[in-house]
Design a protein that fits this description.
Layout: H1 2-12, H2 18-30, H3 37-43, H4 49-61, H5 68-75, H6 82-91, H7 106-119, H8 125-131, H9 137-149, H10 156-162, H11 168-180, H12 187-193, H13 199-212, H14 218-223, H15 230-242, H16 248-257, H17 263-276, H18 282-286, H19 294-312
Length: 320
């Protein structure tokens, strides 16, 4: 099976169809097919930037050192400009270019920078790691964002430390970056931040835990449905829905959230209950079909159909 799959991927790298080629590039990276290097380098020249980006990511994953000149070309960087170009791409602040522009799409530039960092970490990563030792808030935040955008876990330990920084802006950035990196070692500290005095920090901690998806955080995320800030309650509902785990206590908390005073929270709880296929919430969801906010009522309609189907055709239980 493995040999047949590898051969299918290698053959698919020869196609011009962007959907097939993009999928083949992705699988070449997943399977770490060193023999795909030639086809992936060829895909860097495809007219569709999404294909180019997938090829760049795959080249980084397979450790294709020979691809570095081609990746530098995507960044339009000479040897001397490479670090600055990589740092700029890692900052991720570029705008998507016009269709007839020759500028590199910022997502493609970031993919190339990620690959180059995997192939030669010292080019940009070392500069960002050095900046993590700064006491300047702006520089610290830029370094964390840069490392996260380069998908580099090198600074994770320092970022976990920064979750305790006195500046709430630093705590927010650290939480967001650790979530993007899906750093499971940060879970205990992120759970602590769910009780932070700053609502923005609590929100970023919830979002980070949503990305990491660690069972240790489930109970604490459920508690955030009672947070004083409606945005925290809303993202907590989304996070619980994304678990796909029908834990009794969490379903009850989401059902209670259907009576939240904030319409965005009610809508998020409806969506989460639909994701969980929590058929026991059918009647409570149906009561919101006449909600005073149109978006809530529309989501109630979607949820009622999903829960009605779940009640008629139950699936296997997913209790942990």
């Amino acid at each position: 099976m493995a040999d047949n799959l590898a051969q299918a991927v290698l053959e698919s790298l020869e196609t011009e169809d962007p959907n097939i080629l993009r999928a083949a590039c992705h699988m070449a990276g997943v399977l770490k097919l060193a023999q795909a290097e030639r086809g992936l380098i060829k895909a860097l020249g495809h007219k569709v930037w999404q294909v180019q980006a997938e090829a760049a990511r795959a080249l980084g994953r397979i450790g294709a050192a020979g691809a570095q000149p081609f990746l530098r070309r995507l960044l339009k960087a000479s040897e001397g400009e490479l670090r600055a170009k990589m740092l700029s791409a890692a900052a991720g602040k570029g705008q998507a270019p016009a269709e007839d522009s020759e500028e590199t799409h910022p997502e493609l530039a970031r993919a190339a920078a990620v690959a180059l960092n995997q192939l030669s970490p010292k080019t940009a990563q070392d500069a960002l790691m050095a900046a993590l030792g700064s006491d300047q808030a702006a520089l610290l935040s830029a370094a964390m964002v840069g490392l996260a955008n380069l998908e580099s876990a090198a600074g994770s330990e320092r970022m976990v430390e920064l979750l305790s920084n006195q500046d709430p802006a630093i705590r927010r950035t650290a939480a967001a970056c650790l979530g993007k990196l899906r750093e499971s070692q940060a879970v205990p500290k992120l759970v602590e931040l769910l009780d932070d005095a700053d609502a923005g920090v609590r929100k970023e901690a919830v979002i980070a835990l949503n990305h990491i998806k660690d069972r240790r955080a489930l109970g604490a995320l459920g508690d955030r449905l009672g947070d004083a800030d409606p945005e925290v309650r809303r993202v907590a509902a989304i996070a619980l829905g994304n678990t796909r785990l029908r834990e009794e206590d969490l379903v009850k908390a989401l059902m209670k959230g259907l009576k939240d005073r904030d319409p965005n929270v009610r809508k998020a709880c409806l969506s989460a209950l639909a994701n969980l296929k929590a058929a026991e919430a059918l009647e409570e969801a149906a009561a919101l079909l006449k909600d005073s906010h149109d978006e809530v009522a529309r989501q109630a309609g979607v949820t009622v159909v999903a829960l009605g189907q779940a009640r008629e055709k139950p699936d296997y239980e997913t209790h942990g």
